Amino acid sequence: MSKKNINHICDKPLRRRTLLKGAAFGLTSLALPFGNADASVWESFFQKHFHQMNKDELQKVIARLENEYKEDYGKDFNIKSTKPIDGVKFGYGLDLSRCIGCRRCVYACVEENNQSRDPQIHWISVLEFEKGHRWVNVFEEATKYYNPHTVPEEGYFYMPVQCQQCENPPCVKVCPTKATWKERDGITVVDYNWCIGCRYCMAACPYGARRFNWAKPQIAREEINTETHYLGNRPRYKGVVEKCTFCIQRTREEPGTYPACVEICPVGARKFGNLLDPESEIRYSIEHKRVFRLKEDLNTSPKFYYFFAT
Amino acid sequence: MSDLLQPIRNFFTALKFITKGGTGYYAWLAFLAMLIVYGLYSYITQLDQGLIVTNMRDQVSWGFYISNFTFLVGVAAAAVLLVIPAYLYNFKPIKEIVLLGEMLAIAAIIMCLLFVISDMGRPERGWHILPFLGTMNFPASLLAWDVLVLNGYLAINCIAVFYVLYKLSYGKEYKMSFLWPIIILSIPWAVSIHTVTAFLYNGLSSRPFWNASILAPRFIASALCSGPALMIILFQIVRKVSEMEISNTAIFKIAELIAYAMGINLFLFMAEFFKEFYSGSIHLAPMEYLYFGLHGHSNLVAWMWLAFIFNLSAFFLLLRPKTRENFFTLNMACVMIITGVYIEKGMGLIIPGFIPGTLGEIYEYGPSAVEKSVSMGVWAFGALFFTLLLKFALPVYTGKLRFKASESGD
Amino acid sequence: MGIPLQSSYIRAMGLVMMFFASFFLIQYLHVSDAFSSDDIPDYFVPPPPFSEGIYPCSDCHADLEVNETRRELDFHEDIVLKHAEEQRWCLDCHNPADRDKLRLANGQLISFETSYHLCGQCHGTIFRDWKAGVHGKRTGYWNGKKQYRLCVHCHNPHSPRYKPIEPLPPPIRPDELKYTKSEDDKIPRNPLTSNYKAERKDVKEKH
Fold first, then answer.
1. A262 lies in which domain range?
2. What digits encode the pLDDT tens for the residues B250-259?
3. Which of B119, B179, C79, C108 could form an S-S bond across to C104 if both were Cys, CB 3.0 to 4.6 Å?
4. Which CATH number belongs to the domain containing residue A94 in this structure?
5. pTM
6. Within 10 A of B367 (CB to CB), how many other CB atoms are there?
7. Which residue of C lies nearest to B49 if distances are taken between CA atoms?
8. Domain enclosing residue C101, as ranges
9. d(Cα A186, Cα A180) in Å, to the nearest integer?
10. Measured between alpha carbons, how far is B300 from B364 in angstroms, rounded to an integer?
11. Beta carbons of C154 and A146 less than 8 Å apart
12. Residue B58: closest CA among chain C residues belongs to which residue?
């Protein structure tokens, strides 16, 4: 059995051998290939939590992951582990009077952040509300499956929702293994090698922002983005949770490009910047526009501000 | 030399007792084994393909597994109902059978753990949740609490049961001085496992249906119905298939206690029902979904009304001494309670947490074939474990099975 | 001794006067030439979006007589004015004498590259938001150089309402979400249009 096969024993369609093996060694033998396991599998199994690794250990892990990804996708990956920039707390603004619901952001995010194409994963949900009905906190009136020939549709307005990067994130509080946490620059991240897939964070998130890999994520080779961050857009695994990271691989640089959703938005409805910088666009929006945050009554204190520019 | 071999010989004596039985017994074992194998096969499919083979999705991210888990935590916790009168008030008839309740608790907790493992996306990373070995998020995460209290409860009950069995199997009296602290500890602990499990849901402000402070009391009340109801049925089976004597007095006493618990359960339910429907805020939606359907989605409506009618009828049946002490109506009431609470605290609790979703989406969930067969497998495993445990414990209890102590032993 | 003292005094006076003079000069410039204000971003990505072969306007208009009457246009039939058309006509914005320039209400001429001054005459609050980076699309670096767009990149000046566009496909519903293990070429592709990908590559190369 080649190295590659061992790695992905769980991902192959069920074969007789797998079944027999399972029966023979019990369930553990499926998850952990005993006997003929190679070092990578065990290293992967015993990999420490992101915070428990020192610099060398992290570099070793990153090298191993880059190898694994290369075997999987046939491409050279660059996995960064860039630390937060001092004096930066990221904030996001979304101008509801501009958004036309075209979903460019949804798919730019998929492209940039290596979301699975099959089964489909989208980090951004664009909700369509009927004008003159209920306000945006009554979501039952909304749909994200609208599909007219052109948008905006007469009589409707749109509200994209993604991770709100709460200052007080309920998902982090509930995680039983500390596999998700809030970074110093305010971004909540997931260690995809530490998540046990219990999905408690998904139950806790009031914004439906977390996504689960119900099967092995699949992305065509030609579409994979190889410029990645350990805590961001590196390819994920079956059975772990993922979420928006404000494009940590792009934004956590000096200078850093805007998140993919900001960059693509054809109407410029999306604003991004440093909340601690009084000159930033996001601060201007908060100080000059009537902003609101979703579900403020839950006291999650999102760093994602919706506003109406006009 | 014979001293060293004695435990092995004892083991085979026990094995002989466990494996001996009539055709009914073997048929039962074969039936359970079949379900377990099928469940295992389904679970391997799930491991292979991922949880995509379930009907859970991002919109409804917990389903049948967690529903079963929640119900079974209640069954496990209910052992306390037997412990309290048995040891604190020295109510003799119950005291003799309290061991059975504790054994049921052990089986239930094992099933709980299996259901949680079945629900995990990466079961092989389970060690990440352990203290010291992993990075347990204690005390912030209620799931970390749950791991501690459930395993603690399992340990307590195991110690109590095996201590008693050990002593009895060597023909000795068990010491109450040893058992007392365990029992005193087990009472609040039993309450705690179900409280913590309720808090697990209760603490999520994102899910208005769960985010109601009545949840934990309702959990305890309904657990005190379903657990003992299950035991009443088991007791009758036990005394039929073994020589163990379980008095009618004990059974009727337990039935009476169930009636009170069900009364409280119904009252708490009514309090919640009133609050939601009278105030009619937007948080009413999940309740509306459960009992009347929401925007044409009504998969659970019939089930919920059935559960309500069952619970209510069982309450009256168990309240009246005449129907309580008639085994036909008693058993009917017990079956109705088990079904009613299973619906109410299983799917009826978990699913409305997700319907409507946090962004208003309604995805009507029902378990997939894999979820059903894995769950059946877990139940069968629990039943098999309990059966074998009983098969060993009952002869010990009735004095039929006695080990020979090694000569140097005390 | 007195003379050098005096000369230094004069020199100092001269410096002070020059300071004031330059201050007034700057003030004057600021008032007279609104274009040199600091808060105007200086980095635009694409040039003004002219239709092909339409600019410079003087190629044709240099030889044409100026006709100020409201009428059906002969050549620019593609232009339908839907922008306060009751109050305005072509030459309220286009400079009659030199068509390669635009003209503000006060008679000042500006280039097409700085057309935002023309728009800003009426849309003051939007102009302010645009300068702050809040109205309109911004690309580049959130903590570095930003690429701005002209108003006319998104709004056709003759009919400025943003035109409806085709939405990308809706997400798959949860009950239809299935997993099919696929060969690489069978995996569904991202429906994103390729121009975004090109743009992204562009940004990277510039970096």
1. 82-310
2. 899 899 999 9
3. C108
4. 3.30.70.20
5. 0.89
6. 19
7. C179
8. 42-177
9. 13
10. 9
11. no
12. C174
